[in-house]
Amino acid sequence: MTTDTTTASLAVREAASGTARRRITRNDVMMYAAILVFGIVAPIIFPNYTYQIAVLWLMVLFAQTWDLVGGQMGYNSLGNIFFFGAGMYICTVTQIGLFTDVGAYTSSSDGGQFEFSTEQYYIGVAVGLVLAAIGASVLAVMLGWIVFGLRGPYFAIGTLGIALGAGELVGAWEWVGGGGGIPIPVYPGSGDGKAFFYYALCFGTAVATFAFLKWLYSTRFGLAINAIRDDEEKAEAMGIHTLRHKTVAWAISAFFLGIAGGLFGNMTGFIEPLEVAFPVITFGIFMVAMALLGGKGTMWGPVLGAVLFHIIKETTWTYFLGWQWVALGVIIILNIMFFQQGIVGWMQEKWPDLFGIEVDRSLVADTADDRARGRGV
Amino acid sequence: MLDNLNLLALAPLLNIQLLLDGIFIGAIFALAGYGLALVWGVMNVKNLCQGEYVIMGGYFAWYAGTIGIHPILAMPVAVVVMFGFGWVIYRVIISRVVDKDMFTSLLATFGLAIVIQQGLNLAFGPEVQIAQSGLETRSFFDGAVTVSEIRFVSFVICCVLASLIVLFMKNSRMGQAIRATAQDARAARVMGIDTDRVYAFTYALNCAICAAAGVLISMIWVIQPFYGLTHSIRSFVIVTAAGFGNLPGVILAAFGIGVAEQFGGFILGAELQQATVVGILLLVLIWRQALMSRRRQALA
Amino acid sequence: MVISNRFVLAAVAAVAAIAAPSIAFAAPCGTITLGSAISFTGKYSTNGIHAKNGYDIAVKRVNEMGGVKIGGKCYNLAVKYYDDESTPARTAQLLERLIKQDGIKYMLGPYSSATTKAAAPVIEKYKIPMVEAEGASRSLFNKGYKYLFCVISTSEQYLASSIALAAEIAKKMGKKPGDVKVAMAFENDPFSLDVRAGVIDDIKKHGLKIVIDDKLPRDLSDMSATLTKVRALKPDLLLISGHSKGAATAGRQIAEMKIDTPMIALTHCEAAKIVKKYGGAVNGFLCPTQWAETLSYKGKYFGTAAEYDKLFKATYDGYKNVPYQAAQASAAVLVWKEGFEAAGSLDTEKVRDALAATKMQTFYGNIKFSKAGNNIAKPMVLRQIQDGKFNVVAPAKWASHKVVYPRMAK
Q1: Cα separation, B43 vs B37, whole angstroms
Q2: Cβ <8 Å between B103 and A156
Q3: How does strand C73-83 pair with strand C365-368?
Q4: pTM exceeding 0.95
């Protein structure tokens, strides 16, 4: 897709995406163990930060699912947030609709008075999350047929349009409360219990997403979407059914985002279309920014980017008062201008051996030459 | 919805009102749309902060109003200042992303859009602002159709600006250089055109055009730091539908979207007025895709 | 490693020497910190900052008057703020943060109905009482929340008196209520939709007829399509609600399109500064308000409403009118103060019970909470723009001027 890709850098890139396929070393095991232990122990050691760390795991999930389509497949979507919102609404409507009339519950005159029993609540959440995941995937497949004919900027703008339009349409849909939003069924238990419950779900979903994507990138499917990124025409010529691969990749991304949406809706306690469910210019852009910051098209880049971004955001956000958004814009611009490969991408270039990338030195020399000769052509 | 359609059928004058409103506002959309077509066509930059430049232009008019100058007089100032601003933005940011892949310029200008929005918010606050033209409203057909003079005046100004741009593109050296670069940048460079300068000029010109549109918008609608995005989306719809370098197409598409918004707002309800724009965008994209795939099949 | 005893003693003595004066001369008051996540940035930030100023001026006033006295000990009030960026998506996160990390046990509300709707379930879970002054949505008070208290009149009252007024005028003119046509244009957001729900109930009660029921988009900059409908259907009453931007857009386009509806009521006139913007063109608009400096309310902290108005303008630069958003925020702080003293304790449960039993008179009006937590002792008043001035015209008990019907643009 990219016009300035030389064959040499292609080779390096392919080697780079080979990271996922190499053997698992002891270092890896240590790292996974450390993260798992942190994830499990964190709410016990830092009980006051449970909610924020839960959001952190969602951020990691955002960046990873964006990277599946944007980084690994080269289709830069600005509208992945659509699936987040769709999942949120599907989950909420299921939670309510299983036990009472949704229209009456959401009506702004006297809605939301229904009392959910403990059992109803957990059944609602469980069924809701499953349906959210499936529903978001189905929507992805349906939309995939439409948008995957679009290339490059048209794809980005088309997906942006879908996310913006979805917010407006849901806002006009009175049955789900329209712009008035829906108060989410209340968790039957204490505040700490709720925080812990959703923490566990967020962490579990993020880990499952990571494991699944790691496995996915090691399969033929992973190679195929990499091939689509590097040269879609060639990939097609080689017999890869590109539309099918693209749609499936998007549906996978949507599957996990749908769950994330359902979880975040429940954690927020009140949802409405424009600000919470389809926040195109907050979460929708965050997920791109995080993946780019960490390094798109890599396994750990989005994770690292999300962690860094979230920590910076949570620690400094409240002290900037008004300037935080300017700072965010500047970070995106600088990131794009000077640091497109992201942290992990930069590290891979600097110390390829560390990532187990076997680089054909002669090709690398060529690439460097190419760079030196004519970047701006 | 059916009631509204019925109403349109019963009172045909309403159609005239909506049509006029749509065309007058569409003329302003055409300016911003043409600016985008320019930067997209010439330098392949998808400028997602188009709407923010429009809003910035609007604040010039608003400011002029607050210090007692007629807002329309702010237009020359806005155009000149925004031209300089565009030049600086090109030198600092756009020149570094102009030859990168397609997503880069989109995201960089998105970042820029966020900075501009928040900058305006910090400078002028989030209140909705207006510029008062002080002109009257004329009634026709017993008051069933009203045309405010400012809409008409701004329509005329749009026509004048568009003609100026056309003349400039046809006759001046820079205009010719811009057209040459749009056709083939490499060939233009070989022929001795300083394409970097052409790019800078094109981008700055776009900012100036947007600023002019903004001055007019602030006298007809209202402005607010966060209102840029819908203007950007409109510009993208216009360019996607019309293609680059096609001024008649841009104008037609802009009128189309202006009118469609008015009728969409009337028939579907005002809450779907913006959804109409987005819906048209998607339809245009799908339509283009259908055309493309037919062409691909023909080639195969 | 051995540290000699003498060294330790010396160190302790030094610390004591530094600390001693501060113990001896420190102000005898402790501190009670209230928490609030409010909008400093984003689309609600104008009103968010009005509210913050309201909180701050009341905190200052309470502290000047000797602070909060509980069981012979005195406490100064302080407020810890976070910026919710005008989005309910941040509210729950920030309240968790206030409660869990900053250990705040007493809350002040955020700005807007949407954020308050997101805040209420959180405080309810943690059993942290919140007195809020900026979330008017009626649906906040039918959920059985026990820790939520609201000093303002709920959303259905905003435009109710304008409908009563229209019905009354129709009666006087010998018109049947069924012939009175109402056009409505409400923003598609939690606040305006709640106002709309209240309006529809009232319209049904009086038997008027709805001819237009449009919803306005969130990023509103043009409502000419709706107004074209208004011109075609000639309603007798036009109701508009859409925060400041709705009022600004409506003011401009009603004048521009020469809409001659005899009665027009819209929310947020003062916040949108429509008189300053449009002058005579908005003459005769009806504007509901929670509070006005001309009303005869009086309380012990700020004196009369007019005195509060004066003090506020002297404290903060750039206010021509004191927005009611600031006044009600101040009232919320006063409710906290009295609540603490009535409870005689810092225990959240005891304070909650004391808050529930609040009955006080303030510059902002009387405050008494229903079982659901909303203030039922204060009316909403309706003001009409008459020659550039806001004059109270309804309800009759508070009216200082007669309503001008039909309205006349100048």
Answers
A1: 10
A2: yes
A3: unpaired
A4: no
